[in-house]
Every structure is written in C-alpha cells, then in structure tokens.
Amino acid sequence: MKKPIAAFALALALAGGALLAQTLPLTQTLNLTAFVNSRYKLEMSAGSVTFTRVANPQTRPDIPQNESPISVTVKATTSRFLIFPQTINLRIEAVGTLTDPSSGTTIPVSAVTWKASGVGFVGSGTLSSGTAALLGTWNASGVYDGTITFSFRDDPNYPPGTYRLTVTLTVGAS
Amino acid sequence: MLKLVKSTIFPAAMSLFLAGAAAPLFGQNVELSLSRSSLSFAAADPDTTPLVPANDTLTVRIKVTGGGQPQPWQLTLRANGDLYSLLSLAMIDISNITWTASPAPPFQNGTLAANVDQVAASGSRNVNETGVMNFVFQNNWAYWAGSYTQSVTFTLSYR
What we know:
Chain A is mainly beta. Chain A is 11% helix and 48% strand. Chain A has one domain (39-173): Immunoglobulin-like, CATH 2.60.40. Chain B has one domain: Immunoglobulin-like (Sandwich), CATH 2.60.40. Helix content of chain B is 13%, strand content 47%. Chain B has one helix at residues 2-22; strands at 29-34, 38-41, 51-53, 58-65, 73-79, 83-85, 90-92, 97-102, 110-111, 117-123, 127-138, 146-158. The termini of chain B are far apart.
C-alpha cells in the first residue's frame, strides 16, 4: 500500500516544480513611445544692416550693405501625412516704407533688394510692403543654413537723410 | 496504517510541491520583472533638450538562484524594429535610444538596436538583483513630427 502512495507523492512534488516553476529564458516586453512635435526656429547673425550713399550720385547705383552677409539658419521639424510633407517656407516682408523720421520723407521699399545663397534659399528678390516674398522653401525637416545680403538702389532724387525700415523674416509651414 | 501514510507522505508531498514552484528540484529559481510596461519621451526643442529622458526610470528585477552548478546568464534587450510613426509612415533609427543602468555589474549601459540583442546585464554566478535603467532619446530637428512607437523585448537567458 505504501509504495503507490509514495510514488504518487513524489510525482506530485516533481510536477509542482515542473508545472509551476519558471525556467530560462524569460521574456518581458517594454513599449516605447517618442513624441516629436512640429516646431520652427529662425536664427540670424545680425539684426540690422546699413547702407551709405555714394557722394552725389548721378545714376542709380546699387549700394551693398556695409556689413558682412547675414547668416540665416532655419531649423524646422515639420509633419507629413503618409508621404505628403508640409512645405517649410521662409518669407520676408517690409513693414511700412523707408522713412526719415526727422523729415517724414519716404523711399519706396522696392529700393531694397536682397540676394540669398544656400540650399533651398531663393536667389534674389525685391522687398515689398504688405506682401511676404518667398526667401526659402524646403520639403523636409532639418537645419538649413544660408546667407542674405541686402542692397539699396539709390536715386539722385532722394533727399539726404537717415531712412529706417523694419523687415520681418518669418518661418512656417504650409 | 492508512492514517499514518496520510499524515506523513501527503504533507511531505505537498511541501515538495510548493517548494518546487519556487525552486524546482532540477532547475534554478529564476525571475524577470519590469516595474512598468511602457515608457515615453516627451516632445522637446532639440537645441535645449538634445537628449530627452524617458518619463520614468525602469526598475528591472532579475533572479537566477538555486539549482546545481551556477551557469552564466545574461539579460538582453532587443528592439523589434525602428521607431515607427503610422501616420507619417516615418521611422527613426532605434539606436537613438540609449540607456544607463546600475548597479554595474551586473548591469551595463547600452544602445538599442533593431532586431539585435544588446546585453544589459550578465553574470556567471547566481544573481538576485534589482537594477535601475534610465532611457534617453536623441533629439533631432530632422525628425518628422509624429508619435513613434516600438516594443523592446527583455530576455533573461543562459549564455
């Protein structure tokens, strides 16, 4: 009578180890999620440029800015739906006209032109007030470096003075 | 006679049964557990936060004890692919996620790799240790915006 019961007990004990105990390898799963938001940043090496008139201009010379070209860096993380990306745009727009505050004399903003270089930058253009001109365009997230140089087309008819103008550069997506 | 058998053999058998569940007679007592089943990395400016820490640390408990002769063991992490965004059909290389782990040893730092085991801990003797892992995500302007996901399989095995 004892032997069958003892054998059963031993089998039960072994079954306990075999059925309930874990053995290697063991695995566990960890789920990772990384969130990336759309964001845009514009960096410029300078916030102002100046032009100096040539003494007694008889023609309409293009006067380059006195300073070195402005370095422009566009940083953009943009989105896309499936394979259709949003386009990153850098635009430039004059606010008002060139104005001499002391006399109130103005010069059309179209007297100021720009030349840009760098991948994705539009080569050249003329400033416009109230209309944003395209200065650069890209179709993927990334960091884009370029330079921009402004010129002023002088005119003998412009009265002497110190004329000021604010220009806005804007980066965004469409 | 029968009562004697019941009072001696059955209790002994039950003791062995329960002991076997915790420490098998012919194997080792092993355990692998994670403190959480998911981690996330918040969106951040790549300039100010080039390395994005995960929202929490991960506590990993590993146990390889008992049995006979100790065998070399290892804990590996295998990413089951790159980070993937379903909406934009974009991927980010999973190697942009790295971890630091302590205590070292048995834990070690590492970098995730797609479909390749990366050792996160190892030893040649019994171990009963709780480690802390901190994951970070390499931020970059060049990523497409979106929510990227991927799973990582932790495997505790003999080497």
